Fold each of these.
Amino acid sequence: MEHSKLNITQISPGLISIPPNGWGAIEKIIWNYKLQLEKLNHDVNIKYINHIDHSQDILHIHVANLAIEAAKLGIPYIFSLHDHHVVHYGIESHNYKINLEAIKKSIISITHAEYLIDHFPDTDKLFYLPHGVDTEFFKSDNRNKPDHKLLCLANNGLAGDSSFDRKGFLFAIDAARELNLPITVAGPIDNIEFFKHYPSHANYEKLTLRCDSPTEDEILELYRDHTIFLHPSMLEAGHPNLTLLEALSCELPVVGTYNGTKKIDGLFVTDRDVKSIVDSIQYVMNNYIDITKKIKHSIKQHDWSRIVERLDGMYQSIKSIKTNVINQEAKQAYIKAYDTTDKKYVEPIENLEIFTHFVDGPFLEVKGNSDKKYRVQFVDDNGLVHYEDTIGCNMWVRLNRKYFTKWRVNIYEGSTLVHTKILNFENQRVLIGLDSKSLGDTLAWFPYIEEFKNKHRCKIIASTFHNDFFKNSYPDIEFVEPGTVVHNIIAKYEIGWFYDNNKEPELPNTIPLQKTATNILGLPYRELIPNIDFVPKQRPYNEKYVAIATASTAGLKYWTKEGWQEVINYLKSEGYRVIHISKEGTDLQVEQLSDTSMQNTMNVLYHAEFLIGLSSGLSWLAWAMRKKVVMISNFTEADHEFQTDCIRITNTQVCHGCWNKSEFTFDKGDWNWCPKHKNTDRHFECHRSIKAQTVIDKIKIIL
């Protein structure tokens, strides 16, 4: 392609000066485009929209409303999409629609995150160009760093909500706290408002907060003074984004989220999950020298000079198309210059209707009058093909897998990919049901319905046997009774204990109870506590009291009467009233709650000092109400139930944990189920071996 000198105009967004003297990502991008394009012998001006005319060869605009103004003036332009709100607000939002209009009216448009191409299926003008970094400025000074120090650098919050943890500060601080490492969180003054919502995180003793909008020189010093950069962001319009590349350029390994197909040396991709982040940090610390050597060797490929060379190729390919724009001509010229990752341009299928949904498994139907044959694939996000077959028009296929997978559906005509679509639930209706009447299961699993809604930005219809616990606390979720027929849904998922690897990828009894929900919904596993509908009433007893719950749904869950009575007597001797709240009643010498309705039981729990219970629904209820629980459970492993505010009573010196062993499956019809020692003198030894004094010693910790 002949290389011509171009007269290029970059349009200023108009809010921040260029080059930026403060916090401004778009302005930094425009400035680096200008510097590098001038090195390629182009004339580059930065102007406001009201100063443009038809004289420039290339007009490049970075904000949607300004692009639409150029279109009204009849001036052809290239548009860059920088707005992550197009994802947050959804495809029905005004924000999305004006960006789509700006793309459609452009000659060609650029996105800096590959996934956004799939987010705009109604246009074929959007192409991917990554961000870059000034590797001559952002570079290591090889200073000695004897100890590891973590760094976050970002402007947190989302769409005016200063409390929204878009950048993952809370995950980063929790990871630092777990590893007992110092961490710095730096950024603009707006971050002060964010941390007002999270005082427990702001008060981490090894946290340094810098909310003073550091300058470029100060940012460079931050990178040089730390060893690992954390970026557990939820939503970005650039993948990789600018700070991630700057950190790498200073030879800092990065632990964070990334939604791109191209591998980046030194970037360790994690979920927004504390355990995942901690594991990656530990790996980086253990392999630090080798990782930094790889970064140093490869970072130049991300330099702005390399990126702008590609941008220049794009400019050159369309320089002659300035007026009377012919979309197909522009598109084909641009595709020739389109040097990117594995993202390929796909020509759409003509005269066919393709239907997909994920109700009771992924479903694909091809409708039309063609006699052609098409090869269809269902591919997971690791690139593994789970299903492949050849079908014709007016045929359909369905997979058996019922749990969430981020499917990519590919359709080939011969060897040519003619259709590809990645699962996207944004603003779609999704039905999620809980396949259990158990109170504990319901409370354990429900918070992940909300988590799924937030992750996919979809509209949730929830079906549980205990809707009254949640209706007021989750106003954005629609509730229906089990068995209700729900129309116009894109997907349906059932959460339950399924010994079926098409419904649940792991044996349910071998994992923590809450992980059942995260496995089925495709979420990272971390303990979440639900919000429940409860308004405290008057304190039921004047004295300090402790609630106990001695009953459960199977014999192996019970503790001994002798043990319970000794604990009751101890609490009374310490001046505590003891209230037994199990509705089954008891023959122990203890006060039985007479009104065991759910609302009264919750009120008694709310005002109690704490609960002593078993692995049962009432223990999960106390946890959901943010009460301390002393749990006597030795038939499950210690991580099977919740961990927050739970004092666990076990005895690992005897047979224990049978519930969580893969070789055993609980028999609901056998009250005396004990898979190894039934009808022997060791029957239920897991709980019979727990002494009252062991429980009392644990209670003393919280009295």
Note: The radius of gyration is 30 Å.
Amino acid sequence: MTRRPRPTAPPSRAARVALSTSRAERVALPTSRAERVALSTASRAELLALSMSSRAERVARSRGIRTLGVVALRALTGALAVASCTDREPRAPDLRPPAAAAADTVAVWMTTGDGSALLAKQPALVFDTPVAGVPTITVDGATTYQAMDGFGYTLTGGSALVINRMPPAARDALLRELFTRSSTSLGVSYLRLSIGASDLSSAPFTYDEVPAGQTDPALAAFSIDAERADLIPVLRQILAIDPSITLLATPWTAPRWMKDNASYVGGSLLPANYPAYARYFVKYLQAMKAEGITIAAIAVQNEPLNPDNNPSMTMTAAAQAEFIKHHLGPALRAAGLTTKIFLYDHNADHPEYPLAILNDPAAKAFVDGSAFHLYGGSIDALSTVHDAHPDRNIYFTEQYTASNGSFAGDLRWHVRNLAVGAPGNWSRTVLEWNLANDETFGPHTAGGCGTCLGAVTIHSSSSAVTRNVAYYVIGHLSRFVEPGSVRIASAVSDDARATLPNVAFRTPSNRHVLVVLNDGETTQTFNVAFGGRSVTHTLGTGSVATYVW
């Protein structure tokens, strides 16, 4: 991945590391089965224990401690296991969204820049007459835009490793926290995978490794065995929790023998190997399917304009068009695969790249849509591509947060540009970068990102879990907006357009969801108007809220 919020050109690794701007916010994650029971039952003993836990967390926070240790959490929840001893069988996953408030009220969840509220439920708002003299955000459910496919992260090889080495009970608790949808879980509905290694794998590899100087056009050496230790087991656990989750896969590099520099880093795919590389994709999709894992979509190449990552591979727009229309598209069709093809998968500062491919009718015929990152350019470039080809889809597939930034700054930037900006510019997905890593920001390859912060940090010695800013950015969408929801119109009065960015959705169950950021420098009070009714709310500077009715 490239690492910088908004460069003017594809940045170097050194520049990306130097200019990274994000930060972790550390909060304990329930790790025992008893704790999960606590979140799903309401006995007096459990509520008392939860209030004790909440109090302990507040005391810890006041002392500057962001993460409660596993031992302390288990002590607090030991009584819960006794109180709930009848719950001995595995429960069916709860994928229902949090309940909306009563018909005349609006439920509110909020995260503040200072971390005093973290995706925390607020008092319900009552529909009433609007307050005069403040901005109004008007939600119009009759005006609809794109359907939403989901929200989530990349399950890198490193993510799978740190999750899979957790104790079974802690791992199960974390996966249910991430992949069920309720008032206490996240509801992640979309995951991106790497085909072979990414820079957040322990080491670079592909699925067709042969000795230096040899080639393998028949792909006799093809194998996904490198994924059997961690990625495949973790994916199976996730799919057992939510079989409907959507999976996108993209390669960081082709096998070295297919490239003009025979290296994991940089270089380009040799045209003579286009047929073999198309078959490589087919074999990958078939191999994963044989493991019970269906890949819904593939992107042709991660960051095709970035030659510096480890691994990486460059690919021009002309080369990508040639590969799609004469090799990859026909190969998928011949194999009877309906896997979607995404092109580009890089920064918004070069919309001419996807446009050049979409302007080629033969290539466009095989393409579902274009994928974007935002380490360069402006999010409204997604609309530029959509408007030129409205019959093809838009996807936002990666943005990182870094270990040396600020929670408040990243919350604000990522909500404005990703949570609000990407759907507001036609994206069907919002994906942050790495799902999980350890306290040293690993694993990663030599030369890979050493400052990339996961949505969660899993501490290697204790398996304690810390939730970071990307957790909350995605959570303000994923917990409430199920796949199949549609974006609907929302507009704020002109005087607050720059300081109250917002986006709205209607879910399949006919609930309405509005996400609002206070991007100004002062506390703002505003009305939310819908169907002739209004509620009024106040957000502190840098705070984000999700409203559900």
Note: The longest strand covers residues 136-147.
Amino acid sequence: MAVSVAVPKKRPRHFVINGRDVFQKFLSAHLGVKIIGVQKSFSECSPDLLLFAGRIPKLGSIPLAISVTVMLLPREEARKVVLNKIRDARNTFKKEN
């Protein structure tokens, strides 16, 4: 008796993903913004920074940064920190123009 076995097709690219990309996707979903990367702090006394894309009218998407410690906050509080950072950046650019 012959048995036929289905040969799996090549896996789609989205199955080949590294840990850093998974972490960035998780953080992006958690904070509600696109995480660009992590910037090492300039001193041992300050935390590293999460870089994210903030939308500023007339400028489009610009990189903004918040402390990595925002990851320790509950989701809603963390999103408020992000929104406040974007609001502050918008206000700064309004004053300059």
Note: The beta strands are 35-39, 49-56, 60-67.
